[in-house]
Write a structure and sequence with these properties.
With 225 residues, the protein is an alpha/beta fold. Helix content is 22%, strand content 33%. It is built from five helices and ten strands, in the order βαβααβαβαββββββ. The strands form two sheets. Strands 4, 5, 6, 7, 8, 9 and 10 form a seven-stranded mixed β-sheet that branches. Strands 1-2-3 form a three-stranded parallel β-sheet, sandwiched between helices. It is elongated and about 60 Å long.
């Protein structure tokens, strides 16, 4: 899933056999990376912003013109959405992906730009989890995903920072082990960021949430280039 937010070519892992969905202006990133998306979904309102990524002047015309040609030749590859709608383009694209049987989503271009879009995309991770799927947002050395009543283990080679935030009023039975700042069977709430900026220390790390849902953010603190 490739959105119209910030997206570095170095961040993206090209995996054979995956369905690539360009969400609106995310088509510009696909073009820049040489990816032919299986689907292009959106209301097409952010295509103009993506033109600069594909300049200097595409030999094939504007991105909008390119998509119109794709739509003419392969209409099944383009799904146009109304601008006035309840679902964001990203949520609509995820729903369509789920309808096609996919249950594991890597989401690029979900952060940056307007902050409300970034928050909406984080909420999409919760939607996926609540509907039997899973997703992760990947951007510039950052990975975000939701955990719910489960544990996650990290190998001792992990570096950087880990932050954990309650989604909902609270997450209970939170244990953090093998990291700089441990917790044992604690409760974290949505009004006190106790889980921010923990550090990997060369040991196997473990996070557990016994009750509730939390957003887990991994950051390598990589410089943007």
């Amino acid at each position: 899933m490739i959105g119209a937010g910030d997206c570095l070519a170095a961040d993206m892992k090209i995996e054979k056999g995956s369905l690539y969905i360009a969400v609106d202006g995310g088509y510009a990133y696909c073009k820049k990376l040489g990816i032919s998306p299986g689907l292009i979904i959106g209301d097409m309102d952010s295509l103009t912003e993506g033109e600069s990524l594909c300049s200097k002047g595409s030999r094939n015309g504007s991105l909008r013109e390119e998509i119109e040609r794709i739509e003419m030749l392969c209409p099944e590859k383009v799904i146009r959405l109304c601008k006035e709608k309840d679902d964001t383009d990203m949520l609509a694209a995820l729903k369509i992906g789920m309808e096609k049987g996919y249950r594991d989503f890597s989401i690029y271009g979900a952060l940056g730009g307007r902050i409300e879009h970034s928050i909406a995309n984080i909420q999409c991770l919760v939607y996926l989890r609540n509907h039997g799927a899973k997703g992760r947002i990947l951007d510039n050395g950052v990975e975000m995903f939701v955990i719910q009543e489960e544990s996650v283990v990290f190998d001792k080679e992990m570096e950087g920072y880990l932050s954990l935030f309650a989604l909902g009023e609270k997450a209970e039975g939170v244990t953090i082990a093998g990291m700089k700042y441990p917790l044992k069977d604690a409760t974290i709430t949505n009004d006190y960021p106790i889980g921010i900026s923990n550090e990997f220390v060369g040991q196997e790390g473990m996070i557990e949430v016994k009750k509730g849902m939390a957003l887990l953010i991994l950051s390598t603190n990589k410089e943007r280039t």
